[in-house]
Amino acid sequence: MTTILAPLVAGASYARLLHLLVGWIFAGVILMIYPGTYRKSLGEILAGAVWLDVVVLALVALVPAARRAEGVQARLLLVPDREEDIGVEPSDTWADRRRTAVWLIGRVVLGSAVGFATVFGLTPVFNLLTGPRALWYLPLAPVLALAYGWLVVWAGRLQLAMAVRLLGPSPAERLAEAELRAERLLERNRLARELHDSIGHALTVTVLQAGAAREVGDPAFAAKALEVIEETGRQAMEDLERTLVLLRETPAGGGARNGAATEQPGIDQLPALFDTARAAGSPVEARVEVPAGVLPGVLSRESYRIVQEGVTNALKYAPGQPVDVQVAVRDGQLELRCANRLVAAPGRGGGSRKGGKGLRGIRERAVLLGGAASAGPVDPAGPTAGSLADGAGEWVLAVRLPLRLGA
Prior knowledge:
By secondary structure, this protein is α+β, with helices and mostly antiparallel strands. The protein is built from twelve helices and five strands. The protein is elongated.
């Protein structure tokens, strides 16, 4: 019983009835002003008025703002489950105008049907229930009221389905919205990688410097370690501030102090990165053979982050061991290589790095740039890569990126 009666007392049903009656009122106005009704039957008048309705509604649909007005009204009175199912944007294409015209005509037809059913149906019922034999027909009153109520409910639901179908986003708009969501997701992933690379590197250097200063006990060494920690922390704070500026969608330089927060790191900043690693106790042998101005901005930035992650991994899993870094442009591709000796460490076997978020981020960067990345233990005596005993080989990160996407 609740299932039957609940829709009849719902506020949405009465709001939808009002929306239906607006369409009926429009048809009634056209009918009243339709010329040439003298000595014509009701059927002839309706047949002529229908064509006038169609022409007027088609002309209204040509106005771009008509679609917006209908969408706003439908959202307000038809009470959709999700408002975004009914668009409120003006017509941009002829397809939008055609759908708007079909919606307007369908709305008036359905509203007129409910309006005429209300007038021509309730009037006889009222006469029966107030006539001389009213007591005989009184038991039918609840049944008739229930039937009329459900007519309104189903007509309102049909009107809502029409609105979602005809006023909802077009396939092109849905595709554009999906592309926008994908772009936002990619941007969030990129920012997450930026934070992981920058903050992870800073924390690794800080932990190593603090531990070394505590064990050495030399005041001069401790002072140098504190200086490195301070500089690394300052750089991490600038990277964090820059990322927060991007998250707030602030224009470049709008929320940064002296422009530092929005400055993108590039391959020209690798020497400072190597100095930080050397200060952390790991000798770095670097060969950067990249002519100035060859790398596009995005490739320079992503290359810096890749090398930074490789050096950070070396500091984390092989502290104090030499790190060999090679960056060169060959055959239209940028080649990045970062290698360090495998060392024995409790719970830190060389293979444990395979599933790390940093390495996964490097592979994602490489794929997005049209390149490829590999990482794992390698035997210097041969090309065999795989499971090696600690100290028997090197951990090598190798990345190849085309200078131009699609090359």
